[in-house]
């Protein structure tokens, strides 16, 4: 019989937290870091940026890059976290906002689990505090009956709290953050007390303005954030590298084929997504219709991972055009009418005439 009280080892987890996966890198950075550290930070801002962007330490330890993009963006984000201003990572879906948020908190606090996941059903208690109703009914309001939110825990310990998809949270619930971010306190009127933030406390939130169900931030709340906009990868090589690295990480836990065998198809997926996003082919010669979806890097990772699963379990272990065709069609055609027109035009005008893409063209035609 399985002992549910014993936590599984990191190797057995489908998705371990960043501070566990990269524990060796974090420890090496922490031990070699001799620069000034803000209160309750695990390492200096310089070391946090090195952890995010990668590098080689004096002792030869290689720090793998977690984010591929402009260094200045990460420097601004980390510098913001060292002030009393909260950080808002803004961008279209799939620009690594949540990924950066998780790794920021892992490097700064050593704990990325103080998380509020924003949805249309997120309540004010998720940001402030709740109650153990059995104890509340039995004993009345008391400190023992209080259930701390991740934000309250971060305030008490001088850590960083994460709020994912802030604009998915109803506007009146969002505004529960105003007092926390401006006064650095969280009143508990039922007990006649307040929780004051310890030095080191901060909030990093993510948001996008492209999904349905978005609730605009009030001007009062937006003023309490410094905003860093994360763009889509600037060039094809960067995007291929991001997709390859992330798929390689996922493949290890899922025991799928090695990524090098899939690089040709990864490049094909990235090319298709980039051309459809921009509305023009890579050589700039042909204008095409763009579908309604964002066709983000995250979706490219999903398409490739699904294709590798198909290849591993129903193919010969090598990623082929037939394995990625269904994923691409599903990612592109969100609107069955308008997107179908755009996709069909792209297949016939661009893919059909492209050298070496005949098998891919045929596979996509069959799936469409």
Automatic annotation (TrEMBL):
<protein>
    <recommendedName>
        <fullName>ATPase dynein-related AAA domain-containing protein</fullName>
    </recommendedName>
</protein>
<dbReference type="InterPro" id="IPR050764">
    <property type="entry name" value="CbbQ/NirQ/NorQ/GpvN"/>
</dbReference>
<dbReference type="GO" id="GO:0005524">
    <property type="term" value="F:ATP binding"/>
</dbReference>
<feature type="domain" description="ATPase dynein-related AAA">
    <location>
        <begin position="87"/>
        <end position="225"/>
    </location>
</feature>
<dbReference type="InterPro" id="IPR027417">
    <property type="entry name" value="P-loop_NTPase"/>
</dbReference>
<dbReference type="GO" id="GO:0016887">
    <property type="term" value="F:ATP hydrolysis activity"/>
</dbReference>
<dbReference type="Pfam" id="PF07728">
    <property type="entry name" value="AAA_5"/>
</dbReference>
<dbReference type="InterPro" id="IPR011704">
    <property type="entry name" value="ATPase_dyneun-rel_AAA"/>
</dbReference>
């Amino acid at each position: 019989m399985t002992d549910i009280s014993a936590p599984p080892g990191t190797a057995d987890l489908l998705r371990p937290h960043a501070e566990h996966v990269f524990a060796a890198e974090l420890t090496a950075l922490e031990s070699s870091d001799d620069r000034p550290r803000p209160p309750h930070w695990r390492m200096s801002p310089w070391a946090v940026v090195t952890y995010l962007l990668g590098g080689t330490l004096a002792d030869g330890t290689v720090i793998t890059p977690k984010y591929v993009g402009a260094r200045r963006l990460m420097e601004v984000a980390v510098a913001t976290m060292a002030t009393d201003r909260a950080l808002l990572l803004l961008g279209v879906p799939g620009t690594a906002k949540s990924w950066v948020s998780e790794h920021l908190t892992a490097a700064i606090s050593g704990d990325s689990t103080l998380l509020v996941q924003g949805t249309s059903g997120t309540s004010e208690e998720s940001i402030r505090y709740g109650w153990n109703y059995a104890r509340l009914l039995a004993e009345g309001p008391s400190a023992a009956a209080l259930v701390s939110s991740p934000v309250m825990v971060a305030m008490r310990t001088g850590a960083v709290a994460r709020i994912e998809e802030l604009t998915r949270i109803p506007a009146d619930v969002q505004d529960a953050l105003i007092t926390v971010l401006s006064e650095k306190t969280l009143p508990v009127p039922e007990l006649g007390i307040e929780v004051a933030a310890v030095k080191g406390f901060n909030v990093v939130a993510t948001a996008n303005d492209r999904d349905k169900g978005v609730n605009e931030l009030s001007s009062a709340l937006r003023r309490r954030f410094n905003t860093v906009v994360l763009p889509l990868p600037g060039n094809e090589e960067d995007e291929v590298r991001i997709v390859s690295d992330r798929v390689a990480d996922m493949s290890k836990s899922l025991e799928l084929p090695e990524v090098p065998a899939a690089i040709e198809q990864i490049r094909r997926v990235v090319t298709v997504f980039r051309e459809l996003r921009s509305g023009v082919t890579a050589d700039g010669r042909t204008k095409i219709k763009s579908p309604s979806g964002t066709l983000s890097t995250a979706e490219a990772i999903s398409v490739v991972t699904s294709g590798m699963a198909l290849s591993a379990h129903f193919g010969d272990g090598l990623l082929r055009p037939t394995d990625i065709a269904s994923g691409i069609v599903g990612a592109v055609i969100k609107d069955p009418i308008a997107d179908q027109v755009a996709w069909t035009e792209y297949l016939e005008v661009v893919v059909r005439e492209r050298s070496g893409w005949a098998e891919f063209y045929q596979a996509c035609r069959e799936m469409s």
